[in-house]
Structures are given as C-alpha cells and as structure tokens.
C-alpha cells in the first residue's frame, strides 16, 4: 500500500484542495495531518480568537473526513519532527503542502525539505491553494514583485486561474496511526463575545449566502459602516476553509459590478502576499522608510485610549470596540482607526498592528502588517502622506451615525450625525454623557504630522 501525507496548515478544507487531490491520485492511502506547531504557540500569534476559530476549523475538517471514511490526525510539537515521525510510522513516500509566503512558512518548508529528503521522502509544495494567483506568478519586468496595486491587478486579472476541484467522495486513511483529540473551541478562554464560528461548512454556507444575497450590492455598499454589507469571508480565507480560487471563479461566474469589486478586493490579499514573499522583513520593518521618529511623549496614555475605544472621536471608538467585541472590524473602520493611530497620534504602526493581531480572527501577517504600512505611509500607498479625518470619514461612511450608536452605547441617545461631534452638543447634554473629550486636536495633530514628515 502506498501512502502520502497531506500536511494541512492554513488550508483547512476538503473542497478545491490540490494537495489532497494529488495525494489521493498518487497513493492508495492518505494521512491528513495537522500539527499544533509549538513554535507558533510560543510566538504569541496563537491568540484566543484565532485559536478558538482554528478549533472549529479542525473539528469541521475531522468531521468532513469522517463522512468520507477517514479522519484527521492531530499531533503537537515541532512540525518538522512530527511530519518525519508520521512518515516513518506509515512508510509514506511523499508529503504534500500548500505554499505560503511568510518568512516562517518559508523556513518551515526549507527544514521539511531537508529532513524529508534525508529520509528518502519527497516534499511537493502546491501553489494556488492559499492564493488565487501565487506570489511570483506575475511580476513586472524589472523586479521580483509589484510594489503598486493597479498594475499588479491588471496582470493578476489576466492570469488564467486553475479549475475548481470537487471535494473527494472518500479518503482512505491507514489504520493504527496515533492522534491527539481535536482541540475544542470551548477549551479556549478569553475570546471576543461575538466571535464568528469557523469550519468549512460555515464557510461554504456564508459564501453561498453572499453570492445569492450580498454580492450584487457590494460595489455600492462596501464602505457603508452601519450596513455591514461586506462578505465577512476574511477569517475563512485566512484559515483556508474557503479557496480563493473558488471565490473568484464563482464571483466571476455570477458577474456584474459587485462581483468585479469583490474580486478586486480578493486580489488585494494576493498583492500583499506577493510583497511579503519578496520582502519578508516588511512584516516588522518599514517597506519604504519615511525616517519617522514616532511620538514617545504621552504615547502610552493615548495608545491605551485608542485600544479601549475612548479617544473622544466616536467613529474611531466605535471601530475599536467592534474589534474587541467581535474580533473583527469593518475595512473602513480599520482604515480610519489605523490612520488615527499612525498619523493623527503619530504612533509607530507596529504598535497598532500588534494590537490588531492580538484580536483579529482574520489576523494575517501579510495583510495586517502591509495594510498597516499602507495606512502609515511606509508601505505601498502611492499617496503616503494622506491623513484620514475621522469626522469627515464618519459623515461620509456613517452618515446617520447608526454605526457609532451601535458600538458606543454612551452615545446611543444622540440622534443623527450630531453623534460624530459630541463636543458640539449643548453643555448640559454633554455633561450627562459618560464619554471622553477628544484626546487630541485634529488640526494640531495634522500640523505635527506634516512637520514630522517634512511637508511644511
Ligand atoms: C489596518 C488594516 C489591517 C488589516 N488587517 C487584515 C488582516 O489581518 N487580515 C485580513 O484578511 N485583512 C486585513 N485587512 C484588510 C481588510 O480590512 C479585511 O480583509 C476585510 O475588512 C475583511 O472583511 P470582509 O471579508 O467582509 O471583506 P470584503 O470586503 O468582503 O472583501 C473580500 C475579501 O478580500 C480580501 N480583502 C479585502 N480588503 C483587503 C485589503 N485591504 N487587503 C487585503 N485583503 C483584502 C479579504 O480576504 C476579504 O475577505 C486589514 C486592513 C487594514 C486597513
């Protein structure tokens, strides 16, 4: 009996899964393996929201495999050592893995290749599992990656996508392989109260609902904060319970302006991944330095107010509270909360990026760090010194104030757009609100930023 191992990482699904399809085609039996990687556990990346969502995904994957006559094998420890152990136990001659761009994933792949080769086992890395278009698949003439989105998107759009693969009907797993029990969501403490559920079933149901009921209006409504009219597929794409190739193919099949706008956003995900694959240090260092000397004075107090959602700017506070409550934030909220920290408070983008990674269920090194850099003006934004004014943003993207009233209960009784400027309410009304005064004056902050960037 020939055996192949499929090492699942951030591709926790059975539909449209090239490594699993290749393993089934190449061997009589397959070991679907997930290793609870002690290095990730120690890195501080395995925060409660993502650990709980991951537990759902693993339970879903195990259930899906059991429906097909198999099961998930779970191990803990050093990922390379555990894969080698499973290879020895089963006599497997090939391991399949999805390619991933982070520095950590690259080093895992290198170590795996070395150790498996020494054991006489092949490693096959499959692209376009985690991405619709793999990092490096399209490049400009003069560089190893695109630094600007628009030309990237043009090339990305013209790149032929592979076909979508069906989920297997059956998965034959060798008998007698030891496995730990699948982690349980209920064992994870400290999660956000309204954290979404994970798992492939959940992901596929959400995608189907989205294609049926949300996609057509996406072009017009994706920035409407209160409307909550985006797909919320990001955690499913992050953990790979949905295939980006399938999302793009099905959206294109649906067609229309909403589909075009949605596909463009999925391309942003690939864009950041190809930047990180080419410049792994961009997860911690400025991609394009602006020689910032980030503010130190009183910064800790301001950062604490920002994290708690008590800056005195209701739209920023609403976004930050959504993050705490749901482990997720609307994209427009992310943009304006990040701009407020990095530009208005002129605080190091890494401080904000860390806080987002501590809470976001879709927290992803490439998309989080590079979006933060985009907002801070140290990344790929072609207008690096733009500053988002939270009051103007609020009027535009939450015109009636419903988003603020939902997330900032202290302001729930303030009607209409007045909720965006509580400091203009009559004194009597204001003194009755348990809501802070603005922690910073916007025009002073803008002057400070412009001076710091040498723009005055
Ligand atoms: C400061 C900041 C931090 C961010 N951190 C993350 C992160 O850690 N993980 C993450 O997945 N996204 C991140 N984003 C991007 C974006 O905000 C989220 O992907 C989006 O809000 C998820 O909601 P949705 O699934 O409803 O998106 P939709 O609007 O429905 O978009 C569909 C999909 O496209 C992708 N996408 C959309 N916008 C972007 C973008 N700007 N960059 C990359 N991919 C995008 C996502 O995979 C998303 O699920 C960040 C954005 C900012 C400004």
Automatic annotation (TrEMBL):
<protein>
    <submittedName>
        <fullName>DNA photolyase family protein</fullName>
    </submittedName>
</protein>
<dbReference type="InterPro" id="IPR005101">
    <property type="entry name" value="Cryptochr/Photolyase_FAD-bd"/>
</dbReference>
<dbReference type="InterPro" id="IPR036134">
    <property type="entry name" value="Crypto/Photolyase_FAD-like_sf"/>
</dbReference>
<dbReference type="InterPro" id="IPR014729">
    <property type="entry name" value="Rossmann-like_a/b/a_fold"/>
</dbReference>
<dbReference type="Pfam" id="PF03441">
    <property type="entry name" value="FAD_binding_7"/>
</dbReference>
<dbReference type="InterPro" id="IPR036155">
    <property type="entry name" value="Crypto/Photolyase_N_sf"/>
</dbReference>
<comment type="similarity">
    <text>Belongs to the DNA photolyase family.</text>
</comment>
<feature type="domain" description="Photolyase/cryptochrome alpha/beta">
    <location>
        <begin position="2"/>
        <end position="131"/>
    </location>
</feature>
<feature type="region of interest" description="Disordered">
    <location>
        <begin position="176"/>
        <end position="199"/>
    </location>
</feature>
<dbReference type="Pfam" id="PF00875">
    <property type="entry name" value="DNA_photolyase"/>
</dbReference>
<keyword id="KW-0274">FAD</keyword>
<dbReference type="InterPro" id="IPR002081">
    <property type="entry name" value="Cryptochrome/DNA_photolyase_1"/>
</dbReference>
<keyword id="KW-0285">Flavoprotein</keyword>
<dbReference type="InterPro" id="IPR018394">
    <property type="entry name" value="DNA_photolyase_1_CS_C"/>
</dbReference>
<dbReference type="InterPro" id="IPR006050">
    <property type="entry name" value="DNA_photolyase_N"/>
</dbReference>
<keyword id="KW-0157">Chromophore</keyword>
């Amino acid at each position: 009996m020939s055996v192949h191992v499929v090492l699942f990482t951030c591709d926790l699904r059975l539909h449209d899964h090239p490594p699993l399809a290749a393993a089934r085609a190449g061997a009589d039996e397959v070991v679907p393996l997930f290793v609870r990687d002690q290095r990730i556990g120690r890195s501080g990346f395995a925060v409660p929201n993502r650990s709980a969502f991951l537990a759902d995904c693993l339970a879903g994957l195990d259930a899906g495999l059991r429906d097909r006559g198999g099961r998930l094998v779970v191990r803990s420890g050093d990922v390379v050592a555990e894969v080698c152990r499973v290879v020895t136990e089963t006599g497997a001659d090939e391991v399949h893995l999805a390619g991933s761009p982070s520095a950590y994933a690259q080093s895992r792949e290198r170590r795996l290749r070395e150790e498996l080769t020494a054991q006489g086992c092949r490693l096959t890395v499959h692209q376009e599992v985690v991405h619709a278009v793999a990092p490096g698949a399209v490049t400009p003439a003069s560089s190893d990656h695109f630094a600007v989105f628009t030309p990237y998107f043009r090339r990305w759009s013209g790149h032929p996508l592979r076909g979508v693969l069906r989920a297997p009907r059956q998965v034959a797993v060798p008998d007698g392989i030891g496995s730990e029990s699948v982690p349980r969501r209920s064992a994870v403490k400290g999660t956000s109260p309204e954290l979404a559920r994970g798992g492939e079933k959940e992901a596929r149901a959400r995608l189907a609902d989205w294609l049926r009921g949300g996609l057509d209006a996406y072009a017009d409504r994706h920035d409407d904060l209160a409307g909550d009219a985006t797909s919320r597929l990001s955690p499913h794409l992050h953990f790979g319970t949905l295939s980006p190739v399938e999302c793009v193919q099905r959206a294109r099949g649906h067609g229309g302006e909403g589909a075009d706008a949605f596909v463009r956003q999925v391309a942003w995900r690939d864009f950041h991944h190809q930047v990180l694959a080419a410049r792994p240090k961009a997860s911690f260092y400025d991609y394009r330095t602006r020689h910032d000397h980030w503010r130190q004075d009183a910064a800790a107090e301001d950062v604490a107010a920002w994290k708690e959602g008590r800056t005195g700017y209701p739209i920023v506070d609403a976004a930050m509270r959504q993050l705490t409550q749901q482990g997720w934030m609307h994209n427009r909220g992310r943009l304006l909360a990040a701009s407020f920290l990095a530009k208005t408070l002129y605080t190091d983008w890494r401080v904000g990026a860390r806080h987002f990674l501590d809470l976001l269920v879709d927290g992803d090194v490439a998309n989080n760090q590079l979006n933060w850099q985009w907002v801070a003006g140290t990344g790929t934004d072609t207008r690096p010194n733009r500053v988002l004014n939270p009051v103007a943003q609020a009027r535009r993207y939450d015109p009636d104030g419903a988003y603020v009233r939902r997330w900032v209960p202290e302001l729930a009784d303030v009607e209409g757009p007045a909720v965006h400027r509580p400091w203009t309410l009559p004194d009597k009304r204001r003194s009755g609100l348990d809501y802070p005064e603005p922690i910073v004056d916007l025009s002073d902050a803008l002057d400070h930023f412009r001076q710091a960037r040498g723009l005055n």
